[in-house]
Write a structure and sequence with these properties.
Length: 333
């Protein structure tokens, strides 16, 4: 399928002050991701792994190094002003709808804003488009005259989605877009996103710490750790045969509904916290926390290795480990 978005060696760093002197946080450290038309790429990882920073870099909300291509076109060199034209292609939905909805504006006025900036539609044409997108997200046209605080959390998120799709983008970046909602509302909003994907041809970068939700909605999954994608692959391969120890640890943290299966799985526990991003560990950034760390892991950064069943993992177990790819880890767990 057509590639709608691709990054190559994307890096984000920013200055911080620590203990009275200035240093640099390396929040995103050389990320390659590929998003195909009509696909949902799930992005998982602990908080602090750089997921939101990556999203903001893709939206060109913060500066980055490396390449971002939209529809094959390199947009990474574009200044914010020039990128505004590309804004139509890529939009974002946040955890908190108030990030995109001004509480003092009617819903209609909020949805109209991008139309005013990016199109030459008349007021009547804008009103028509607003009714259209409200219908697409399952809301009544007369909601346009109401204010965000008259709505439930789920309805507000629908409005935020309506605003995000009003320019007919190709890509929606959803950063914890359903995380603040209760489970049944979550399901409704996820169903809506899936419906919109098919109906208007969207592709999603779906960022969430909720693995069950990611498993449900994603075609492909990327796992982020300390600013790097340490593993990626088709959703079934990731959840069925994770190749990277960090992914395995993350998956083990999800309660298994079947108590027998749960007993059969020895829990891999995550030791310690995410290391200081101003001073990432040498070699494999996960080595201090990894249950399978070997001597080489502290010394040498693991290369990307293709994993049977699809995708790649960055882990020495799959190259210089004592055992072969795939078998290595499952025999230890
Ligand atoms: Fe663990 Fe080494 Fe693999 Fe890193 S490279 S995940 S430390 S086994
Ligand atoms: Mg975040």
């Amino acid at each position: 399928d057509k590639i709608v978005m691709q990054t190559e060696d994307l890096k984000v760093s920013f200055p911080v002050r620590r203990a009275g002197h200035s240093t640099t946080v390396q929040a995103v450290r050389g990320v390659d991701i590929t998003l195909r038309a009509g696909e949902t790429l799930g992005l998982v990882g602990e908080s602090g792994s750089g997921k939101s920073t990556l999203a903001r870099a893709l939206m060109r909300l913060i500066p980055s190094e490396g390449t971002v291509k939209l529809d094959g076109r390199d947009v990474s060199g574009l200044k914010p002003g020039a990128f505004r034209k590309e804004r139509k292609r890529i939009q974002m939905v946040f955890q908190d709808p108030y990030s995109s909805l001004n509480p003092s504006l009617t819903v209609g006025a909020s949805i109209a804003e991008p139309l005013k900036v990016h199109t030459k539609l008349s007021a009547a044409e804008r009103a028509e488009r607003i009714s259209e997108v409200l219908a697409l997200v399952g809301l009544n046209a007369d909601y346009a005259d109401r204010y965000p605080d008259e709505f439930s959390g789920g309805q507000r998120q629908r409005v935020a989605i309506a605003r995000a799709i009003v320019l007919n983008p190709e890509i929606l970046v959803c950063d914890e877009a359903v995380s603040a909602l209760d489970v049944s509302t979550q399901n409704q909003v996820i169903n809506l996103l899936e419906e919109l994907r098919d109906k208007i041809g969207l592709s999603y970068l779906f960022i969430s710490h909720d693995l069950a939700v990611v498993r449900h909605i994603s075609d492909y999954v990327a796992v982020m750790y300390l600013g790097e994608i340490v593993e990626e692959g088709p959703v079934d391969r990731i959840f069925g045969a994770a190749a990277h120890p960090y992914t395995q640890v993350l998956l083990n943290a999800v309660p298994v509904p079947d108590p027998v299966a749960q007993r059969a799985t020895t829990k891999l526990l995550l030791r310690g916290d995410i290391p200081d991003p101003t001073n990432p560990p040498s070699g494999c950034a996960f080595h201090q926390r990894c249950p399978f760390a070997m001597e080489i892991c502290a010394q040498k950064a693991p290369p990307k290795v293709e994993i049977p069943g699809g995708g790649v993992a960055k882990c020495h177990l799959h190259t210089s480990g004592p055992v072969l790819a795939g078998r290595a880890i499952s025999s230890l767990t």
